[in-house]
Amino acid sequence: MKRREVIKKIGFSFGAVTLTPSLLSVLNGCDFKQEGWQPKFLSLQEYDMTEKITDIFIPATEIPGAKELNLTRFIDAHYQLMLGSTEQKNIKFLMKEFSEMLLEKTTQKDLKKTTTSDYENQLSRLLKTDKKERQKWQKSYNDYTKKLNKGEAAKPLSKDINSYIFLDGLRQLSIWGFRNSEYIGEKVLAYDPVPGQQKGCVDLIEATGGKSWSI
Q1: Helix, strand, or coil (residue 212)
Q2: Which among 9, 50, 139, 201 has the fewest CB atoms less than 10 Å away?
Q3: pLDDT of residue 28
């Protein structure tokens, strides 16, 4: 199946994210084209790592991918503008856990020396783990954070669990940013800047040629 067809079928379930005017202006504005742009929240190493991951999630095909759409800049802005200090510290921690796990699995000492194949292997290993195991990881993470929020002692989680939580959240955020980008909204998804009358129970093929409506 071509990626264009896959994107039509992607649903968005990252409910904690909201599209504010500030974030929308970052996603679709001109900031991304500025010379000498620097990430506001991520370090340069974290930015590079995130860009490699998002490019694996959404590579360029017949339509632009994550790199062409500057999704990592959007993600950096989301972390800076939308997360509280506790959430920001948690993201930094999860990214550190993933990077350490990646180096351990590849026996590298420098993240810059890791290859796309190294990333792909670990993403596949964690994100394609048996569903029951992934649900177990999510529950362990939820229980862990609840204890911390209550000020209770909690046993540290494994790097695999923390890495999975980071990757799963980043994957959903990448998809959300992709669907809300100006290019995808207007050129790939069904788009009507001046909607007409509402019609219920209309077949999607008849209405939009099978495309999902732009968000």
Answers
A1: coil
A2: 201
A3: 55
For residue 180, what is the enclosing H or E element? helix 159-180
pLDDT tens figures, 91-143: 999 999 999 999 999 988 899 999 999 999 999 999 999 999 999 999 999 99
Is 16 part of any domain?
Answer: no
- 8 Å CB contact between 55 and 65: yes
Beta strands in the chain (DSSP E): none
15 within some domain: no
- Identify whether 6 is part of a domain: no
State the Rg of the chain over Cα: 19
The total of structural domains in the chain comes to: 1
* Residue 10 falls in which region: left (phi positive, over 0), alpha (psi -120 to 50) or beta: beta
Could you tell me the two tokens for 16? 């904690």
pLDDT in tens, 38-78: 899 999 999 999 999 999 999 988 888 888 888 898 899 88
Question: Is 195 a member of any domain?
Answer: no
Answer positive or negative: Cα dihedral of 143, 148, 153, 158.
Answer: positive
Residue 190 Rama label (left phi>0; alpha psi -120 to 50; beta): beta
> In angstroms, what CA-CA distances link 90 with 65, 107, 133, 188?
27, 25, 22, 34
Its domain, for residue 151, covers 21-27+39-190+202-208
Number of helical (H) and strand (E) elements in the chain, helices listed first: 10, 0
Q: Is the whole model's pTM more than 0.85, yes or no?
A: no
